[in-house]
UniProtKB/TrEMBL annotation:
The protein's name: Phosphotransferase
Chain segments annotated as transmembrane: none
Natural source organism: Duganella vulcania
Domain Aminoglycoside phosphotransferase: 59-239
UniProt-recorded Gene Ontology molecular function terms: transferase activity
InterPro entries xrefs: AGP_Transferase, Aminoglycoside_PTrfase, Hygromycin-B_Kinase, Kinase-like_dom_sf
Keywords recorded for this protein, A-Z: Transferase
Pfam families xref list: APH
Lineage: superkingdom: Bacteria
Amino acid sequence: MSLIGCLPQGLDNPACNEFIRSAPLPAWMPVLSHLQHQFGLPTGAWEKIPQGANALFGLGDEVIVKLVPPNWRRQGDKEILAAPLLEGKLSLQTPRLIGSGEIDNWVFVITSRLKGVLLADVWPSLDIGQKRSIMVQTGQVLRELRAVTFDENIAIKVDWPSYLQELIAVCLARHRRRNMPAGLLGQVLPYLEAAGDFAEAGEPRFIHMDVHPWNLMAKREAGRWKLDGLLDFGDAIVGCSDRFELLTPMIFMAQGSPLLLDALLESHGGTGGVVLQRQLTACMLIRPDSDVMFCLRQVPASGPRGTWDQVAAQMFPFDSTR
């Protein structure tokens, strides 16, 4: 570990978020220059990239440096593990690991910079036909992720029953902090209990957990957009259910469209229904760090949302349930 005395220590989470958000590029340059020299990175102009929870910097068109504070260093550790694990395994480009380590107790991850544009920059302007094609491609990528092989004792593997119980145990406190309406909050635990085995266990598989337009790269070919890259593996686990992998693109990409939901599900392998609606909604309620009220705002309300069954029907309106 390098100590150069340039990164703050002992910040709580809000202070850390504020520092990452507001500190200008010159405040980070001693660290970036140190890493540039240590790893023989190319010359060029640095830029601060205002995206994500961690400090992110680009060096020309070739290099990305991510600085992860001690508060959530597990995200940095997962990035370091996932990059070589996934290199060359998917139909999309993924970041190639150039270097990693610790500096002033922060984790640094140096990777190649992916080509293309963020899907988030073009997604709102795409017609439904192009969105459907991308959802089909997304389903294929999720299948590829599920097929990635790994060592039996890989560090990001979770004990599935214990993992779910821990997520259930801490979810109510998070929902209170994020001002979930009292009527819905009081229904969370009964809904989870009624949902039964909502994250039914299968064989362990790699789960990215956060596939959405801000973590997907796109390129334009013959006048149409297609996926070209996948990044940000800070939430990844090896777990036992595809429900957590399907959840995020269904919320942030399908956004309540039965056509897009079914396109993703059919490409990934499976069919919709009321049971799947309940399973996905239960997973949404316990997913790590999930802001459920923010998730609900991604899908226009089409009726009352006073119960979780009403929410489920609006969030995941598969054609088979209409």
